[in-house]
Every structure is written in C-alpha cells, then in structure tokens.
Design goal:
With 124 residues, the protein is mostly helical. The protein has one domain. The chain is 81% helix and 0% strand. The protein is built from four helices and no strands.
C-alpha cells in the first residue's frame, strides 16, 4: 500500500506540474483563476487517470475504459471541489499560484483513498 501511495504521489506530482503550468498560462492570459483551475484540473486529471491506470494500479487488472475514466473523474470532481474551496479561501490572502498549490495538496489524500477504494478497487 505504501509503495502504491508513493507511485500515486509521483503521478500526482507530475499531474500537479501539468495543472500549475496550464493554470498559470490561462490566468496570465486573463482567464479568471477559478475557470483556469477547472480547465487545468480536467487536463491534469485525465493525464493522471492514464498514468494511474497503466502504472500505479495496473496489477488490479483494470483496462482504460470510458466507464473507469468516469469513475476516476467522479472521485476527482469531489477532489476539485476541495481544491476550489481552498483556492477561493486563500486567493485573497496569498499569490494565486500558491493558492492553487495549497488546494491541490489538500485534495490529494481524498483522491488516493477514493481511487484506491472506488475506481481501481481490487477485483474479487
């Protein structure tokens, strides 16, 4: 479980980079930070879904399917809500990029638990 969490964290780290780069580019282009966060989330979550399917949870025998992607996105949308609430709270207090990073960090644990128990649960 710990090794899986580390892999999940590594994938999440790369996903965070994808998220922050897209978020920064959109925000710098004049898009509102909450909209930028939503778009960057969708791209990063899809990136994370693919890497989690083929690397982190591959031993559980799940194939990359639309159904599995929908489950992953449902867990991720709840995580996005956590992210957006934290972003909104911190947006007036610290830089928008730091606010987004804090939001991502706050949602990571829920994301792992949800994907471990729901999306990529062990087949019996």
């Amino acid at each position: 479980m710990f090794k899986r969490f580390l892999k999940f964290g590594l994938v999440g780290g790369f996903g965070t980079i994808v998220n922050l780069v897209i978020f920064a580019l959109l925000t710098l282009a004049g898009v509102h930070p909450l909209i930028s966060a939503t778009v960057s989330f969708i791209v990063a979550a899809t990136f994370n879904y693919i890497l989690n399917s083929v690397w982190v949870f591959k031993d559980r025998g799940h194939k990359c399917t639309k159904t599995l992607w929908v489950k992953f996105m449902c867990v991720s949308v709840f995580s996005l809500c956590i992210n957006l609430i934290v972003l909104w709270i911190f947006l007036s207090k610290i830089n928008y990029l730091y606010s987004q990073a804090v939001g991502i960090a706050c949602s990571m644990i829920f994301n792992f638990i949800g994907n471990n128990l729901i999306t990529f649960k062990e087949k019996k």
